[in-house]
Amino acid sequence: MYWNVALRSVGLWVILSLATGHLTEQEKSTIVDMHNEVRSKVQPSAAFMQKVVWSEALRVVAEAYAAKCIWDHNPELEELTIGENLFVGTGPFNVTKAMLGWFEEHVDYNYESNNCSEDKMCGHYTQMVWANSFKIGCATHLCDKLEYLDFEKVTLLVCNYFPPGNAEGQKPYESGDPCSKCPDEQPVCDNNMCVVENLFRPSEEPESEDTDAPTVLPGRPLMTTEPDAVPKEPTQVHVIPVEIGREGEFNHGYKMESVSALLVMSVLLLAALVL
């Protein structure tokens, strides 16, 4: 009798984990739509801005890393040539709130100087509006515990971008009249964004500005917590500074690190990005 109850409890936890630990099709659409909404309305306007599309190959990479439940960036970002934004929160996961948390960093970003206000973070926003980052894939995982962070039962969101943004010394996009510099292979202007004739069958992948350029914009985690779970003092997470945002949220933006390749299978999956 006790064994049956225990099995039912375990089964219920597995079902709840699956239900809350994976993005629904609606949530995926929300992520893409909110990125494109932000990208279409950047100020100053962008002379060239690509429309973001969903990538299952990037989702697979994000899902594999999210399952590790580590409160730090994927050490294979440079090897895989992808960008990354992270978000983690307790309580029911809200993808809209996560996207708004990243977007709200725009108030601290100065386009002309390409700098962020002192002691603020802007790397998530600049990755969101990086003109050449036109593919995105995200995944969530419900973690009992999160390595490097003293919280339990949290949802970790990982979003990967291709090509990566936040290259040193470069602005996220070139300002100008919307679509005034759309390349020949992307002649259609759709809501201030350059797209190919058939968006879902691009004949040629646009090249990034400089995928070898190092990334220097600081990445800091974004976390949503219940009121009684917010730490009283600023927290340090694996030498990456963490700060509480306006609504008790934290961000972890894109970061590049030189490490040995451990995700060989993921590299093979990413080959689909250039096909």
Automatic annotation (TrEMBL):
Q: Which SMART domains match?
A: SCP
Domain (SCP): residue spans on this chain: 26-169
Which parts of this chain are annotated as the region Disordered? 202-229
The alphabetized UniProt keywords are: Signal
Q: Pfam families in the record, alphabetically?
A: CAP
User: Which InterPro entries would you find in this protein's record?
Assistant: Allrgn_V5/Tpx1_CS, CAP_dom, CAP_sf, CRISP-related
Indicate the secretion signal residues. 1-21
- What is this protein called in UniProt? Peptidase inhibitor 16
